[in-house]
Amino acid sequence: MNTGICVCRLCLRKESISEMIELNKKESWIKIIYRMTNIVIYLKTNCSTQICLKCKEFLVQFEDFRKLCIQNDVIFRKLYEQTTPDIVNHEECNVPEIDKIKKEQNNEESDSEPPVQIELENNEPFLSEQSCTESIEKHETERKYKRGRPKKGETRLPAVKITKKRGRPRTEKLPKSSAPKVQCQTCGKLVNKFNFARHLSIHDPDRPMFPCSVCEKSYPEKRFLEIHINSAHTREINYPCDQCEKVYLSTRSLRTHFLAAHTDIKRYPCKFCGMKFAQSALRYHHYFMAHSDVKQFACEYCDKAFKKKGDLTIHTRTHTGEKPFKCDICSKRFNKSYNMTLHKRTHRQETKAC
């Protein structure tokens, strides 16, 4: 029995492999997941994708509820297709008739699901009470503005010319934050659905590259190459800040500087303590120093380790005896610049005493 631990593709719950369903062997579940959640799952030959039994239970319940609603909708339309759509008396519903129709449908063996949009036998769509009321009001308005001479006792409003706009109706674009996202099966990153094809090209080893003519670097897109040439080699295009004297080589760097230095906007909150920062680098430094226990700089002479490289350099001088900071008054040496600054204050106090 396999006791390995896997992560559910939908709820990210960690369970043993024995309590999972492998989508690579049951691809029918991929269609059900897409129909229920609109999530596209891509399978890889060298990687197994799993879902837990709890997610499977939710999908089965939702699928049964969906089929039941579609089946009852067919029964409702058959009962009321002969009545006027805008005057439906639900008290006249014949319960035995409903049971009879349900039995007829259960006896019919059909492999395909009934369509969601169903029309009546006379090809007229089933209208709700609200839609019928709107159509009646529209008909009354058209009758009032009817052209020609009015009959005796008939009152009409003056004719109005209605002009229709040409072309397709304009649709508002969704913001990037609310756009649908798809998960990459190679790196696990959530990417905008419209940029997913461009993201997949990153993992293609045979994709075309744009090499730099000066150095050995190459980039997947031409615009990245142009930014690299300007920032690393030519430096022809500059973007000065209108608030200070600083100059940047890209619009992105200029925008980051302006928001961090000349505004009170702090866009990067710490997910552990809620403290906000103006730059992502400052947030990372705060996380590394306050919330992380990783000490990646180890001393080669003892067992101590440090978070910052500067702390390791100062500590190493205690083993080597190096003292690079020299006092320009008495030529005394120190291993820290701060200790030399404190030492110089003693000379100033002696001068004042004299």
Which descriptors would you attach to this protein?
354 residues, alpha+beta, two-stranded antiparallel ribbon, two-stranded antiparallel sheet
Describe this protein's structure.
By secondary structure, the protein is α+β, with helices and mostly antiparallel strands. 38% of the residues lie in helices and 11% in strands. It has helices spanning 28-37, 53-80, 95-107, 129-144, 196-200, 222-234, 251-261, 280-290, 309-320, 337-353; strands at 5-7, 14-16, 20-22, 50-52, 181-183, 190-192, 210-211, 218-219, 239-240, 247-248, 268-269, 276-277, 297-298, 305-306, 325-326, 333-334. The strands form 8 sheets. The protein has a two-stranded antiparallel sheet with strand order 1-2. Strands 3-4 form a two-stranded antiparallel ribbon. The N and C termini lie far apart (88 Å).
Question: β content, as a range?
Answer: 5-15%
Question: What is the total tally of β strands?
Answer: 16
Mean pLDDT, as a whole number?
76
Describe the largest sheet: 2 strands, antiparallel
